[in-house]
Amino acid sequence: YTSEVQITHANEQFSLTDSRYFDKTTLKVTGPLGNRTMPIEPYVKLVFTEPVRAGSEHELVVSVKDSTMKKQRQMWGTTRALINNCVIGVTEGFSATLRFVGVGYRAAIEKDKLVLRLGYSHPITMTIPQGLNVSVPVPTRVLVSGIDLQHVKLFAAKIREWKKPEPYNQKGIFINDETIVKKDGKKK
């Protein structure tokens, strides 16, 4: 990771109220776009190494106590990927683009709420979650961006739930470069 990102691993509990996190420690990642915290399992070891040359990048080595146990091997790679997502999130951020394909499908932002018109008898109003930036550059496109990949993709999936792409007329809400194979209708 680059020098503009600071990663600290504290031996304090991740949560004092949620029993799932009592034995987990806290990893805090701070960067130019914000900061993120994540729980670290007790058997995951993190080793920070300083850059050898000036201008080179810092390294964080993730390992586990016993690599023969299946659960620890699973969390080894998962933890590394989650830490990588935190670092990318606080430096570059994540985004998802939603395309509205269909007659009359459109979106707008009114009073800090996302309003979707998808052919129903009423408009759908969605509250924009805290920490996410939602913009509508064109009525048929919605841009969702933020520092947490899971929150960005979850909100995009919630929007998509209202009109999933269907294979016969190829209408619906598509996330990023999603495509579906067109099916033929009934043939006589």
Query: Reading side by side through the largest sheet, how are the strands ordered?
Result: 10-11-6-12
The secondary-structure class comes to alpha+beta
Using the alpha-carbon principal axes, give the shape: elongated
Number of helices: 2
User: Beta-sheet strand percentage?
Assistant: 35-45%
Average pLDDT number: 90
Q: What's the alpha carbon Rg, rounded to whole Å?
A: 21 Å
Summarize the main sheet.
4 strands, antiparallel
So what's the oligomer here? Answer: single chain
Low-confidence stretches: none
Our measurement of the CA-to-CA distance between the termini, rounded to an integer number of angstroms, reads 61 Å
Instruction: State the order of secondary-structure elements, H for helix, E for strand.
Output: EEEEEHEEEEEEHE
Give helix % range: 10-25%
